[in-house]
Specification:
- By secondary structure, the chain is mainly alpha-helical.
- The chain folds into 2 domains: 35 residues; 100 residues.
- Helices cover 78% and strands 0% of the residues.
Length: 138
């Protein structure tokens, strides 16, 4: 855990140094990270309603698949690179959809980041659902 905090602090320091020494490169990287990303967390319940119509999964598997799909929409760079930092309020919105504890969603986020990288079938489902939800214009 301590190592993860140190790594996060190092990334933060590197980001600040890059922004100050090479602002044009920093802006390019920032644009790459943010491109195609959803920002309005109030849409998550709408995504959940559409997700329920599209997915045959239930229970914990449904929650994990939805969480991964929301990561793909709201934090595409993070899920693809195995990062776990999420926007403030992200966990709360997903928690409200399933009526579960915040710890469950936080644990799911850690797990689905690993699943997304390790299992092609899971990654494919997530990508298809994310595309379908985006195409529906929720």
């Amino acid at each position: 855990m301590l190592q993860a905090v140190a790594e996060r602090n190092n990334y933060s320091l590197i980001g600040k140094m890059l922004a100050s020494f090479m602002p044009e490169v920093y802006l390019e990287i920032e644009e790459l990270v943010r491109s195609g990303q959803q920002t309005d967390l109030r849409k998550i319940p709408d995504y959940f309603a559409a997700f329920q119509l599209l997915s045959a999964e239930s229970g914990v598997e449904s929650r994990r698949l939805f969480t991964a799909t929301m990561l793909k929409l709201y934090h595409p760079y993070a899920i693809e690179r195995g990062l776990i930092n999420v926007k403030h309020g992200f966990v709360r919105e997903i928690r409200h959809c399933f009526g579960c504890k915040q710890q469950s969603i936080t644990r799911d986020i850690r797990e689905v980041v690993v699943y997304y990288k390790a299992y092609e079938e899971f990654r494919q489902k997530v990508n298809e659902l994310a595309k379908e939800l985006k195409d529906r214009g929720v």
